[in-house]
Amino acid sequence: MTKIALAQVTAEGRGSPAAALETASLMTEEAAAAGASLICFPEQFVTGWSPEISPESGEPLDGPLTAAFGRMAQESGIAVVGSIVEAGQGRRPKNTAVVLDADGEIIAAYAKIHLFSPDGEDCNYTAGDRIATFTVDGTTFGLAVCYDLRFPEVFRIYALAGAECVLVPAAWPCLRIRHWETLLPARALENRFYVAGVNTAGGSGGVYCGGSLAADPDGEVIAKGGSGEEVIFVDLDPAAVHEAQRRLPSLSDRRSDLYHRLLSNL
User: Is the pLDDT of residue 74 over 70?
Assistant: First the structure.
């Protein structure tokens, strides 16, 4: 079994990045004390998610914010999944989730593939072009970010790549929270693995309302947060993933040969 923690933290109205990081550090200590091997934070929780950003914004993958996450990991002895605006090296920045192991070393990074065009995120960021997997405490994880949840293809690719749990850091608004509550279990059920989404907690602006949620390979909700700041714990059993996939082999029964022909006729 692998215990993970979803850190539902407020990303608005806190006052400063330093205050957000202090809260994150306390949550990481709480997770470690409870026996978690990994803690995951919401999308861009240090500054708050914004689709409007200048091309020169951001920092290198191994910049100051990632270093702060690395210190949290080292001090607590658990892996940390944080979120940064990654400098684009002559291009627009990326919305990147970065993973630090218990030694504070970067072991994975994932740039959001699907940018939220209704708010113009696609006009100010560069989209990612690859998945990312990593292993902590015997469980293989994948990463997706917020709007990626609406695209089942990404989660199917993770299933075929051997992921046993996909983590989804997000800044998902209250306005569409029912979609969040529907899509997370759906992605779990259709791929027969765990999906754990960590959302921004409700704050003074009223945009977000938490609701972090984890679903098992049968699409059953096994953990759910309220609206405020809290740490939600989830127990993962990799063996349950493989048993679920064996019991109902929808992955191996895929007609990928037919899908390619159908697509070519569009």
Answer: yes
What's the pTM?
Answer: 0.96
Of 12, 40, 43, 121, which residue is the catalytic one? 43
Q: Which of 94, 112, 164, 165 is catalytic?
A: 112
Q: What are phi and psi of 99, to 5 degrees?
A: -115, 125
Is 43 part of the annotated catalytic residue set? yes
Closest to 196 (Cα-Cα) out of 177, 214, 217, 182:
214
What pLDDT digit, counting tens, does each position of 97-106 carry?
Answer: 999 999 999 9
What pLDDT, on a 0 to 100 scale, did the predictor assign at position 13? 47
- Of 12, 40, 86, 146, the active-site residue reads 146
As a whole number of angstroms, the distance between CA 133 and CA 156 comes to 13
Residue 184 has pLDDT above 80, yes or no: yes
Q: How far is CA 6 from CA 203, 210, 265, in A?
A: 17, 11, 43
- In the three-class reduction of DSSP (H, G, I as helix; E, B as strand; rest coil), residue 96 is classed as strand
* Rounded Cα gap, residues 56 and 47, in angstroms: 16
- CA dist., res. 65 & res. 82, Å (int): 9
At 115, the pLDDT band (50, 70, 90 cuts) reads: very high
* Cβ-based neighbour number of residue 6 at 10 Å: 33
Distance CA 238, CA 236 (A): 6
Half-sphere exposure for 150 (CA within 13 Å, toward CB): 14
> What percent helix, strand, coil does the chain show, rounded to 5?
35, 25, 40
> In angstroms, rounded to a whole number, what is the distance separating the alpha carbons of residues 24 and 65?
12
Is 123 one of the catalytic residues? no
- pLDDT(203) > 80: no
